[in-house]
Amino acid sequence: MGSKQKFWYSSPEQQGSPEQQGSPEQQGSPEQQGRSWLFKYPQPNTGEHWAEKIAAEIAGLLRIPHAKVELAEFQGKRGSVTESFARGGRELIHGNQMLARVIHGYDPGRKFHQSSHTLANIWQVMGRVFAESEGARRAKLRISEYLVLDALIGNTDRHHENWGLLRRRLKDRWKGFVAPTFDHASSLGRELRDERRDGLMAENRVGDYAERGRGALYWSEDEQRGPSPLELVRRAFHEHPSFFRPALAKLEKLDNYTVAELVDRVPTEWMSPSARRFAMALMGSNLERLQELCR
Predict the structure, then answer these.
(1) Predicted local distance difference test score (pLDDT) of residue 89
(2) 8 A C-beta contact, residue 146 and residue 233
(3) Looking at residue 42, what DSSP letter applies?
(4) DSSP 3-state assignment of 259?
């Protein structure tokens, strides 16, 4: 799915981590193959690969369910690999599929400016998909965590195919839960050139950059553009504090030092010094603004 170049491959688990695996042709027969991984090429002149990796590490630290991501190379080209979480007979149902079933007139094939992709409509889906109210409540809490993560890392690509449910058939019924969060390549200023990053930091406008970002999840259907991930969480917190307060509380585990440690794990040859400084500054600024909501 999506427009970016990518491919799936299987890796024998006994051979170590995905970046050590080699080409798909070297993976062995289907009987020998283990779990599936998706290799994604970043858009030229972007840091989409390291953005994916850092976002996954941040989610892990916050104990937010997420797809496992590693940095990897294939035929001399750098990218990222994401491990499939649709295992054990489970299938992934994307958000647009569910919205089309529940929301009258919803267009699941619309790629851009889908203003019906709102938090209110997602809430309505959760209320319909889960038979018990407690299941719907847990699903809304999980979605809230994903949106707080988006606001922290500046992920502007939470469109209706970038979230979903995992379900599995059990005798005469379906059992499912919100899928781990995935696809965070559009974050951390990954599209900026170093000169632009340096300029924003020198002018103390990193926060302005975050506020100007336009997300793919709308607040109301009559909006022409979605709010920034930060603004979406602000509105959602005031409208649904019981769901977003626990999600925001997870940020207590973070501080600037911890964020810097995670960013510094990316190999030096994969990420420029300016990109590192900007990613840390962006998360530091967003973290401060998010923590203000609970004060």
Answers:
(1) 87
(2) no
(3) P
(4) helix
